[in-house]
Amino acid sequence: MPIRAFLWDVDDTLFDYTGADTAGLGRHLADDGLAERYGTPASALALWRAATERHWARFAAGETTYRAQRRDRVRDFLAAPGMTDTEADTWFDRYVVHYEAAWALFPDVVPVLDALAADYRHGVLSNSSMANQDVKLRRLGLRDRFEVLLCAAELGVSKPDPAAFLRACDALGLPPEAVAYVGDQPEIDARGARDAGLTAVWLDRYGAPGPTPEGVHRISGLAQLPALVAADTRFGARSGIR
Hints:
Layout: E1 5-8, H1 17-31, H2 41-60, H3 66-78, H4 85-101, H5 109-116, E2 121-126, H6 130-139, E3 148-151, H7 152-155, H8 162-172, E4 179-183, H9 186-195, E5 199-203, E6 216-219, H10 225-231
Parallel strand pairs: 1-2, 1-4, 2-3, 4-5, 5-6
Helix pairs in contact: 1-2, 1-4, 2-3, 3-4
């Protein structure tokens, strides 16, 4: 069955989350006089990312709430288990100010969306929340390009669970075999999409080591996506093109 729609990941696929997170955290720590506490900006970011992944996994498993996982990320990162909810919220909110000031799209995003706009429908499936991603996509000028926006916090299920991908396909009114998913994570995005029956495209911007998962398309930039579309009959190309 030809591909009729693309579902997109947001962070580090369309939006330079790592760049914004790096800049935002660095400026926040400098403002708080904590820049030297973690040794280097890279060390601080590694600890912040580890805390983020650890507590988001708890939220994805239904063990905590969205706001509580944010508070626990702060307590974990600062090694301050006695921090009150209000203190943790205030610290996180001040980080967000710096993080949002650094928001930017990758330069290949708008050109590829323009190139695919006439022939394919588009939606977003993100392991975040509507409160985060709707505002982000609007500020970055992309929200109107997507028919649907689904996020784990509201769905109650996260990638790579096949149910998340299937719910997004249902929102588009299409079977999974008519949908391609583009994301930057080989397991969460690519394998998850593949296992749910979608065409999986792994956007590997930084040349990750290791093989491409079986049944997954691997590209190093979105500029390669139109050529992939043109060469694969599942995207509606002529059968003679390979």
